[in-house]
Each structure stands twice: as C-alpha cells, then as structure tokens.
Amino acid sequence: MQLALGPLLYYWPRNTVLAFYEAMASTPLDVIYLGETVCSRRHELRLPDWLAVAHMLQDAGKQVVLSTQVLLESTADVGQMHKIVRNGEFLVEANDMGAVHNLAGQQPFVAGPQLNIFNTEALAWMAQLGASRWVMPVEMHHRSLAALLAAKPKGLQTEVFAYGRLPLAFSARCFTARHYNRPKDSCGFSCIDHPDGQLLSTREGEPFLVLNGIQTQSARVFNLVNEMHQIQALGVDVVRLSPQAHQMDQVVAAFDAARRADPPNPGALEQMCALMPAAPCNGYWHGQPGLELAGR
Asked: Would you state the pLDDT for residue 252?
C-alpha cells in the first residue's frame, strides 16, 4: 500500500512551501499531489513554480499528481484548469466535473474526493471516463467502501483520506476575509496568517470547525493510523495524508511504520497525538458522527 501526500490546502509563504516539499522529497512518501485546490487568489506559487517542484519530486522518485481547483468561479479559473489538464507530463487529479469533462477519453486521471462518488454506478461511470484511481469521500463508512471495492472495475485503484483536518465544504464566500470584515476581492490574503487554518469554537468554547478561506474543515484531525491494518485488508491501494505546518515528516514516518507493522501497533494513535495540531477523530470511518473518536 502506498503513502500519498495530498495537495496543500493552506496558504503558506513561497519559501515555506518550497522548503516543505524539499523536505518531503526525502520521506518514504510514494505519491505527492501538488497545486492550489482551494482559492485562485493564492498566488505565492504559480503553475510554472508547481511544475518546477513537480520535476524536483519526480527526480526524487515520487509519483507526482497535479490537482485542479475544486470550486471554479471565473473564466480565469477555468483557464487555469485547462492548463493543468493539458500539462502533457503529469497525472491530474480532477476535483470538479469540468476537469473530468476535459480529461475524459483523453488521458487517465485521479477522481478526487470532492467528486463525491458514493455508489457502484458512479464509480463504474468514472472508470469508463478514464479514471485510473478514485479517492473515497471522507464521510464514507468503511462498510460502504468495502461494498464498492467488491464491485469496482478491474484495474481501478482506490485511495483513502487517512490523516488531516477533513475538507468538509466549499463556498463562494471567503469566511477568513469575513472574519476580518474585508470583502473577498480585497481580502489582504489573510489566510497566510493561519498556516493550519483558523479555529472556530462554539459559544461554550468547544472547537467546532476550522476556517480556511472559502473552505470549511473539521476542527479535529482525522486519523486512521490505528485502522491501517484494516485498510490494507480491504485492498486499498493508497492512503492520503494532508499537509500540516509542522512535524509532517514525523507524521509520514508514523504512517509508514503503521503500514509495515506486523502485528499492528495498538498505541500508534496515542503516540501521534503530540504531532497533531488538534485532538484526533475517526468517526466517519466507523459510521459515527465525524468528530467522534471510536475505539477509545
């Protein structure tokens, strides 16, 4: 089973991003997704920069995938998606149906988690369009995944989001800009001040959600490290780890150890808590409310 690093969901300074991927090049990651998937106003790196990072990682032995933006809001966004789709070198993760339409019948692609593939008919259709891998929606129960895997088209790889704050929703409104009482088009790029997103708590002071520009995330960190043996037994091909600002190399090392452990280490999750920016959860995987932690 392979380890993948998902696309960077936050807005970091250019030098921070470049240093981050240089560090990731020496980790046991097998697949690395690159590109801006959240907001087109984030311009610290542009497509030529992402391509330069892609070549560096490819030279380090990683499979590189270029991810498209989830919510396209302008002609410029569509044009950028077309450039990524036609890059001519790297595999593409399609995160909206516009990207799927441009890739269908032209080249293999990864069907991203935001496409919300929840049944065998949708999965078969995506494979017919040319998907070589699909990413399970983060809300899916492991039993539902097992049912899809039993009926999935031959040769189609499966990827599971296994670590990180859950990407729950996208909106045309920028919540971070609204927090600072700024219009979206004059946001001051305030996301860059929140390298792991901006915590939103309830009136009782309980962590509830994380605001990341136009994206809403879970406040807790989804972590399936204790379920790695189960994931492998299901026949999953790739597990995805979502980037965080600090200690990402140690997170990768922990999941690498978990995929190799025989027998599994029941204390792996507890050992990882010091590496995480918030408390863990795994509810969706177990068919429970997402913010819950099963097995504790």
From this structure: 98
In this predicted structure, the answer to whether residue 96 has a pLDDT above a threshold of 70 is yes
Phi-psi map region of 99: left, alpha, beta (phi>0 left; psi -120 to 50 alpha): alpha
pTM higher than 0.90, yes or no?
yes
Element (H, E) at 49: helix 47-59
Domain residues for the domain of 233 are 2-166+219-286
CB 190 within 8 A of CB 161: no
In this prediction, residue 37 carries a pLDDT of: 96
> Could you tell me which of 171, 185, 169, 163 has the C-alpha nearest to residue 248?
163
Residue 281 lies in a domain: yes
What kind and span of H or E run contains 252?
helix 248-260
- Number of domains into which the chain is organized: 1
CA gyration radius, the chain: 18
Q: How far is CA 40 from the centre of its chain?
A: 17
